[in-house]
Amino acid sequence: MKKEEFCSFLLKAPQIERCKSGGFVVLSFLIEPEAGLTGGSFGGLQKKTCRTWCGGTEVNMAQLWGGRFTKETDRLAYQFNASIHFDQRFLEEDIQGSIAHATMLAKQGILTDQEKDAIVDGLTGIREDVAAGKLAVTDEYEDVHSFVEANLIDRIGDAGKKLHTGRSRNDQVALDMKLYVRKEILEIDGYIRELLETLLSLMEENLDTIMPGFTHMQKAQPTTLAHHLGAYFEMFKRDRLRMKDIYHRMNTCPLGAGALAGTTYPLDREYTAKLLGFDGPTLNSMDSVSDRDYCIELLSALSTVMMHLSRFSEEIITWNSNEYGFVEIDDAYSTGSSIMPQKKNPDIAELVRGKTGRVYGALMGLLTTMKGIPLAYNKDMQEDKEGTFDAIDTVKSCLILFNGMVKTMRFRKETMERSAAGGFTNATDAADYLVEKGVPFRDAHGVIGRLVLYCIERGKSIGELSIEEFKSFSPVFEADVYDAVSMKTCVEKRLTLGAPGRQAMEQVIAINRKYLQENGRITE
Asked: pTM for the full model?
């Protein structure tokens, strides 16, 4: 087989090819024959070659190192080490950080203004060309940093080679990750806020929608849908507080920390931090390049968000069942069965519940990765990205879809109230009625327990008993017992702050409305 025949244009992605003449498995990252097959510079970067096929074809691999090496990188090792297929989502952050770094270098006299302007223009051009589809990020590059720098040097020449002055990939990737996570926190916080707006609107609409409250999955006491939804409002409000807390704690700039021990160049780290919107620079260069606490904290917070979504999803799945019939999920958020035509499945709620474990896995994965790493940077930390990216994407999609599902869900109010009335949820109120008549609580508890058993045996609810039946359990029962055990009275009498009574709920809704008005974006 001729070399020219083998070197077809396969630049887009690494592939496994079988050489017909030799039977060797070849990892190909091939170039066009006319592009040349010799060593040399590639955009100012070290050109690495691979001779892993039977004919000895050389393959270019752009990376930011190689001068001290005398042997080519094994192709499998190169691919194993490379991160371009996932860290290319850092492109905007990498360019943003590089522009700030070049601006600071010029301010400090390390670059000329002309060099800085050329770098900024070149980086801006790369950003625009990628966005327009004119420039592709390919696996030809080891990582997004080498992609940006190689293309910059190709465009502006020697000035581009000066961009990395006073900077290491260690502090560069730490910066990119922080910028990315910080941006994603703001977006996730916005989605949680939108869900809170939906929940608060539903609470306002359902102040008088009576439903059973549960403990141990058994009907316990009557409450309202507004009160029940309010519990989730509090959960997601705490999630927002966690996002805000993480954002502010992580908001320090690692750029300038170098590989681990700073740099001899007179960098102005405070200026760089200000350009990038940080509160200030990090205070220890070793910690700067090896800190992934903010990723762990974010994954922990995202796991809690998913736990809350999963709990809510579980209830919606239950409420949607034929046995409960409390809700009807809109067709837009349901699916059918391939064999059972009557089915309308709550797949979105089930998938949200299922994806919770996926986010938990990302948290446990990063905790396990970080637990045995000595100072400072180690390549293990490259594993912080894919799990974090996936968890972020998962939570965002779940929040968006869950919010749409809840917003369009129809609540069957009459069914909910009937369920509350039929489950002896007013038994506690019947006992309280006796206490108000002078019966000691422990005696009242026993009386109502026997009364409930009587109702179960006869298939009645408490409110369906005659006054004679009531009096057979205690002579203090009078006609006013019917009002005392009505669902409406049972709810409305609970007026302490946080209880389901209308007056208490209106107070809570006002507090929560004010919270949303005063707490927009984290940065406000």
From this structure: 0.84
